[in-house]
From TrEMBL:
PROSITE patterns linked: FE2OG_OXY
An MF annotation (GO) of this entry: metal ion binding
Protein name: Fe2OG dioxygenase domain-containing protein
Keyword annotations: Iron, Metal-binding, Oxidoreductase
Family in the record: Belongs to the iron/ascorbate-dependent oxidoreductase family.
Domain Fe2OG dioxygenase: 188-285
tRNA processing in keyword set: no
Highest taxon above the source species: Eukaryota
Region Disordered, annotated ranges: 290-316
Amino acid sequence: MERLGVSYKACWPSRLTDAEAPREDGQELKVVIAGASRAAFCRAPLDTVHICAGTCFKAAVFMPGDMHPVPLSIRYWPGQLDCPSQCIPDRPSPLAGSHRVPRVPAELHAVQLLSPLAAAAIASESRRACVKWESRGVSLPTQDMCVSQLSSASQALIYDAIKRRLVPFAKAHYPHLAGKLEKNPYPKPGNLFIVRYRVTEQRGLRLHSDDTALTFNCCLSAPSTFAGGGTFFTTGTSNRESLQLDGLVVRPASGVALVHDGHLIHAGSDILLGERLILVGFYTEDGPRDVRRPVKPKPPAEGRAACPPRPRLSDCAQQGSLEHSVIYFSSARRAAAGEVAAAGVHHGAS
Ligand SMILES: O=C(O)CCC(=O)C(=O)O
Ligand SMILES: [Fe+2]
């Protein structure tokens, strides 16, 4: 398998099997890997992803940390919005309607938060901890425990990593939050959890928005201890199938945290084997609260206009000497309309 800076593995998006999946909906996702001279095309929902070199997969799974520890930075343009001029504004705003793709910074970053060793130590302590794993989600069931139930040494490790690595990163990449993070420091007890997925219990988490200014999600389990899983980010349209299938799964190596605006619609992809433990943190400007909101897709309105592409290549985040892989998504409908070159390869950060 050719490696393109991020590695790919075959995987199904959450909950769906080949038999259940509609084959043709005309929607094709173009995945351009910046700087990699390759493009991938994904005919959603469950066709294969074709990397130009000819390798086929069921869906693209990005595993930041597997090959290059950090950073992976993804910007994406959801396939179909009804707000042509304001797809990706500079400031996040709450979901305008539960069926809409949120108007938020559509970026996803991967940050090495903990060393794999520290992640393993926290994972094993949470497995041993005499605590009840329970569902804390009011709107969405989860199996989780509060970080405050861990030993003070583990809590200190987590707090220190967040303060020293995550917060400075968040201030740099989400400048609209910098002042707020100064005034209202993070982390605070209450919105920091360890979430557990098991094949026999809770396998995944359905599509939702966290309704937070910022969310991070750090894998604690070693990749060899589970199969499937990962965080699914939709690039889909407003109908249920597209929301659940058009998108990508990101499965970071242990210790690597995904960081994103909490309004982005995402899901915990079902695990297929073993156990997956993640550390999840929510930053809300007004302190801890119940944050996860399920997404209830509604049928698209007649004649809703597709969003034109906004390939702001010049905007690509390029922090210092760090090399970001930037992945753009655009829809086949736009390509078909001649708005996006069908087979072009963009070089991000150029
Ligand atoms: O399992 C995941 O990767 C996603 C977790 C998540 O979205 C959440 O805890 O709110
Ligand atoms: Fe979430």
